[in-house]
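As a warm-up, study this chain.
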Amino acid sequence: MTDRVRHDSLVTLHYRVATSDGSELIATFGTTPATLKLGNGELAPPLEACLTDLPVGARREFVLEPAKAFGAHNPDLVKRLLVSELPAGGADIAPSTVVEFTAPSGGKFAGVVRERDDTTALIDFNHPLAGKSLRFEVEVIGIL
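Now compare it with the structure written out below.
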């Protein structure tokens, strides 16, 4: 058992992620702690970076500005598409719906419908947390 979190640690912890205005996105405090393998994509890389070198028992709070979290909101990633170009021809797709698209290579990517009228939809392909500052609170319980 190691005494400090490394980039590839299996770590048991409590954590909370919230936007800077206090809107909680996820939290394990008061419930069962999470056990995560760092480097496997179970926790976003900017949040994993905060954990590196923390000792068992540490409880810290980090504030990540957009550039250190999920980046700035990029207006070039907001596109107006014809409803007919949407999956299933746009049937039942309303504002705030997450829509999954298939790239020519076969890969998948998602966008959020910001606006919709009879013929077009405004789709935002930015990460939903892009442009937002985050508060990340963590308590390291154990490192395996």
